[in-house]
Design brief:
This protein is of the alpha+beta class and 145 residues long. The protein is 28% helix and 48% strand. A seven-stranded antiparallel β-sheet has the order 1-7-6-5-4-3-2.
């Protein structure tokens, strides 16, 4: 399955960026079209492991569950169940960059209905770019608290 990715520079440490990424309960504040996040299970470190999400996007709406796999400065996820989605593999990788961080978001989705590859990648790119901008804004907002 082909993947789409993009990156952004964020003026914050990788640890601070990862703490915002790990705070899934606040995703509806900064992830466009994500209306519900429900952490169903956590891992031994208390990080989300199985999560139910509801997405209401103009290109895709679904109620789905994903499983997360955490590392120090990276998290990946895979679709467990979905109504419209048949696959959703993604990741955030955070690395030091100067006095801040470089965040790379990779995403691949597939849906039950036939969708031309170009349209699918355009949707992935829109989702990624919006999420990265939202992440940068949320990191700044959390830093101001």
């Amino acid at each position: 399955m082909a993947q789409t990715s993009s990156r952004i520079e964020i003026p914050a440490s990788p640890d601070r960026v990862m703490s915002v990424i790990a705070d899934l309960d606040h995703y509806p504040e900064w992830v466009d079209s994500l209306t519900t996040v429900e952490v169903l299970e956590t891992d031994a470190q208390g990080r989300p492991a199985t999560v139910r999400m509801v997405l209401q996007h103009r290109l895709l709406s679904d109620d789905y569950t994903v499983g997360y796999d955490w590392a120090e400065h990276e998290v990946s996820w895979k679709l467990i169940t979905g109504r419209t989605l048949t696959a959703m593999d993604g990741s955030y990788a955070v690395e030091p960059a100067g006095s801040g961080s470089r965040v790379t978001y990779t995403l691949s989705v597939d849906v039950k209905m036939p969708l031309p590859g170009l349209l699918k990648r355009t949707a992935e790119k829109t989702i990624i770019d919006t999420a990265l901008k939202g992440l940068r804004t949320q990191v700044a907002r959390v830093g101001d608290r």
